[in-house]
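Support request from a user on the community tier.

User writes: "When I paste my structure tokens into the form, the page sometimes reloads and wipes my input. The last time it worked, I copied everything first. Here is what I submitted, just in case something in the input itself triggers the reload:"
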């Protein structure tokens, strides 16, 4: 039975969109109704909350959405939400619309906004939605699996052309502060170099030397996976071509990694996490983050989760270097 202190829950998506967010929204709505809550959707994240873009949702509201990329609630950045008076106004709007509990689907920045609302009496639960896999307390984030598979398939295609033309390819994937997409694609696509914010030492000459040596050993192409946080792929490609004499091209995959139909894993995990968020609110547990740790779906205090530091596994990067030789 639903906690009597909560009658209505809201759900919003915030920050960058991620494939699988719709599966999470669907789960929140249907599990929420099943738990006896009224459910309201908040469009365009915290920006939409401030503009009172709030609508009633029922089971039909989320019919035929689980297979769709993006987010049916839309999303937006809201820079003004860092201001205390804006946070208080947002909490007042929640109360005005009878929203006692709020499920926030997004990343670290979204959770900081949720904590601000919690300080004003709104019961919040966070669900990890980001393709970057950079939320500290969870081994899985909604959208990563789809994004990395989208990037992998694109890199496979680029590799075919790189091989045909015997060229070097610098392929930039998303990941501003975290190199998980680059690392996974680097291993999955058999890249010779993986440049990620956590490890790259800016020694471009070492890459040039490796390309030259590899060509002497008979390698006919060279793949460099470059994380967005390193960037400058086009100018890097020009410098490599000038230094090696080998035709070099840059490809920036960009926002294609955010879109598309979510994979089975992203649909299933997002659904379980959305339902878990409702379960926590129904049990009177709030200011929690839903997470996936050691193969299990669990939850953690939101402030504690945000304080944790996530490090890219050293052994995985070392393995990628061994396999690239």
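"...and here is what came back when it finally went through:"
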């Amino acid at each position: 039975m639903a906690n009597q202190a909560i009658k209505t829950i809201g759900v919003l998506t915030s920050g960058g969109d991620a494939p699988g967010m719709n599966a999470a929204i669907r789960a929140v709505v249907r599990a929420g109704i099943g738990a006896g809550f009224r459910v309201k959707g908040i469009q365009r994240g915290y920006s939409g909350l401030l503009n009172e873009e709030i609508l009633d949702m029922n089971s039909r509201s989320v019919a035929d959405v689980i297979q769709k990329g993006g987010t049916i609630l839309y999303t937006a950045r809201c820079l003004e939400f860092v201001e205390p008076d804006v946070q208080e106004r947002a909490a007042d709007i929640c109360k005005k619309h009878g929203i006692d509990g709020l499920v926030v689907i997004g990343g670290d920045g979204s959770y900081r906004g949720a904590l601000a609302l919690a300080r004003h009496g709104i019961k919040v639960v966070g669900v990890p939605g980001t393709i970057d896999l950079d939320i500290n307390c969870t081994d899985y984030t909604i959208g990563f699996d789809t994004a990395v598979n989208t990037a992998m398939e694109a890199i496979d295609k680029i590799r075919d052309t790189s091989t045909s033309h015997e060229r070097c390819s610098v392929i930039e994937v998303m990941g501003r502060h975290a190199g998980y997409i680059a690392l996974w694609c680097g291993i999955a696509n058999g890249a010779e170099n993986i440049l990620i914010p956590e490890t790259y030492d800016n020694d471009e000459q070492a890459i040039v030397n490796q390309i030259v040596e590899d060509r002497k050993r008979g390698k006919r192409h060279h793949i460099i996976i470059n994380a967005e946080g390193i960037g400058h792929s086009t100018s890097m490609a020009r410098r490599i071509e000038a230094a090696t004499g080998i035709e070099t091209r840059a490809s920036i995959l960009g926002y294609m990694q955010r879109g598309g139909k979510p994979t089975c894993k992203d649909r299933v995990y997002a659904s379980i996490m959305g339902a878990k968020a409702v379960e926590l609110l129904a049990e009177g547990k709030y200011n929690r983050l839903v997470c996936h740790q050691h193969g299990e779906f669990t939850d953690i205090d939101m402030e504690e989760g945000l304080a944790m530091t996530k490090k890219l596994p050293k052994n995985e990067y070392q393995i990628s270097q061994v396999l690239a030789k």
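Agent notes: The reload is a front-end session timeout and is unrelated to the input. DSSP finds eleven helices and eleven strands in the chain. The radius of gyration is 22 Å. Escalated to web team.
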